[in-house]
Design a protein that fits this description.
about 0% strand, mainly alpha, globular, 23 helices, two-stranded antiparallel ribbon
């Protein structure tokens, strides 16, 4: 689940990495406050806005676990996974959000206010229909995956647009020497919002303290009230002041898209894009389906969600520790070393799914030591995941042209996020075709073997007193294929390509030539 948050946070790390102190920052003029003095309220506002942003992400993460117990196929889970894509492709409309606005209302509030109102309205509308879309788990009431995907895709699209507006506002809302706190507000706030929308909701729902419609209505009200308060009470810096807060040129829509095209045309970029789009294929099955398989094996979904709690301190500490090893001239060395370790751990996670039924007790519960094993495996997996995440971010900061660093890094981050999305969606889609089933204990007089591949065959099996038992689980086949493909990718092409990109001279990465900079 941390992958999901990384997708939305990865673009925001660039603010902290790329902003270098100028002479004015080093020699702070007399009378100007240092530290957070004067920005306390602004930091709280940013933190709250990022918390709101994490709510739709958390709710979207909870839906696949709910669907697992409602006769949903993995192809349908793959369809719903498209709801997570907006944060990965927000670069497509980010230039429009940054460049089109009403000066009289505010550059960022022009988008923030209507988008947050729309989030509240969408949540309110969804609350009246979500139970119908989810179904009740019976054959007569199956989930409407298409509508669920469309609604949560739209919610995450709005949240991603809000993210673009808040990221830009943070650069002018805070004093120049406090801009580095924007990244902290993003990571802490969005993690807290994700926790509330996913872990907190699943825990309350499991004890019958809240329903999904009630939870959606509560946050719809919060969004409405918070947006009204921001619109009325929070002023915004003028456009000229906004432009001066960034070292990068304030480009229009057309110029920004042209700049992105110029970056893509660099000689090193096709190889870089190919590497970023294929580097995570080996982890796709474990990342996308392991949690769903654990729920399918009987692990309570609320308990699985609660396992995110012990992971949070680790996710905060790990980047600081790993950054010590990625600060040199070759940050991708850590990336390369982490790949085989992560691939092996993907097999370990498949093994965990395989042995899970042996821990299940007669009353359907699992012993405490089982959850300790799960936490231990996930904790080690987080080390490899964050080793790759921190090293790739350090590499982006190293190679990005400082003259257009924000746009440059956002492009690279977008490709990286897509490189995680498409393999996960494909992995979910392929679980069912790779799975072999057979109708067992049926009273049918048919001589042909019922493989339960079609809905009619499943209905025939169940109507004659049989059950469709899994003979070969496609998840395990996928994990094996992904491991082989991942190791082959690293040994045959990945290792050599990453070293080649690391050794490429700085001039190969520059999109703005030295004469233009001067």
């Amino acid at each position: 689940m941390s992958e999901l948050r990384n997708r939305s946070q990865v673009d925001d790390e660039e603010h902290e990495v790329l902003i270098e102190p100028s002479d004015e920052d080093v020699e702070i003029k007399k009378g100007v406050k240092s530290g957070v003095a004067g920005d306390e309220r602004n930091i709280l506002v940013l933190l709250f806005l990022y918390v709101l942003q994490g709510i739709p992400l958390g709710l979207a993460a909870a839906i696949p676990l709910i669907l697992t117990n409602r006769n949903v196929s993995y192809k349908q889970q793959a369809e719903f996974s498209f709801a997570f894509w907006p944060f990965s492709v927000k670069l497509l409309w980010a230039p429009i959000v940054d460049s089109c606005f009403l000066s009289s209302f505010g550059r960022r509030k022009t988008w923030l206010v209507p988008v947050q109102y729309l989030i509240g309205i969408t949540m309110l509308v969804l609350s009246y229909n979500v139970d119908y879309y989810l179904g009740d788990g019976t054959e007569s009431s199956t989930p409407n995956i298409t509508m669920l995907t469309a609604m949560f895709f739209f919610l995450n699209f709005l949240a991603a647009t809000q993210d673009i507006a808040v990221d830009g506002w943070a650069l002018t809302m805070l004093q120049r020497h406090n801009v580095g706190y924007a990244s902290t507000c993003n990571s802490v706030g969005q993690t807290a919002g994700y926790f509330l929308g996913y872990v907190f909701f699943m825990a309350l729902e499991s004890y019958g303290l809240v329903t999904l419609p009630g939870f959606l209505q509560f946050w719809a009200l919060i969004f409405m009230i918070a947006t009204t308060l921001v619109a009325v009470l929070k002023s915004e810096a003028g456009t000229e002041e906004s432009a001066s807060a960034s070292d990068e040129p304030d480009l229009g829509v057309v110029q920004t898209y042209k700049l992105l095209f110029d970056i893509i045309r660099l000689s090193v970029m096709p190889t870089t894009i190919a590497m970023l789009l294929t580097a995570k294929v080996g982890f796709a099955a474990a990342d996308a389906a392991t949690g769903l398989k654990l729920v399918e094996a009987g692990v309570p979904k609320d308990k699985l969600a609660m396992l995110a709690i012990p992971m949070m301190p680790l996710q905060i500490i790990l980047p600081w520790i790993i950054s010590k090893y990625t600060a040199g001239p070759r940050p991708m060395d850590v990336f390369v070393r982490a790949i085989p370790a992560r691939l092996v751990l993907c097999l370990v996670m498949a093994g965990l799914v395989y042995i899970t039924p042996t821990f299940k007790e007669e009353d359907g519960s699992f012993p405490f030591h089982y959850y300790c094993i799960v936490v231990g495996i996930y904790a080690v997996y987080q080390v490899t995941l964050y080793s790759m995440f921190v090293s790739i971010m350090a590499f982006f900061a190293k190679v990005s042209d400082p003259a257009v660093g924000g746009t440059y890094m956002t492009l690279l981050n977008t490709v990286t996020n897509l490189g995680g999305n498409w393999p996960s969606t494909l992995a979910l889609w392929m679980v069912d075709p790779l799975t072999t089933k057979q109708c067992m204990n049926s009273n049918s007089t048919l001589t042909t073997i019922n493989t339960c591949t079609e809905t009619t065959e499943v209905d025939l099996c169940t109507s004659t007193g049989g059950s469709c038992d899994v003979q070969v689980d496609g998840y395990y086949i996928e994990c094996g294929i992904c491991f082989v493909v991942g190791m082959a990718w690293l040994l045959i092409w990945g290792y050599r390509t990453i070293n080649k990109l690391t050794d490429a001279p700085d001039s190969d990465w520059m999109v703005v030539k030295s004469k233009q900079k001067q």
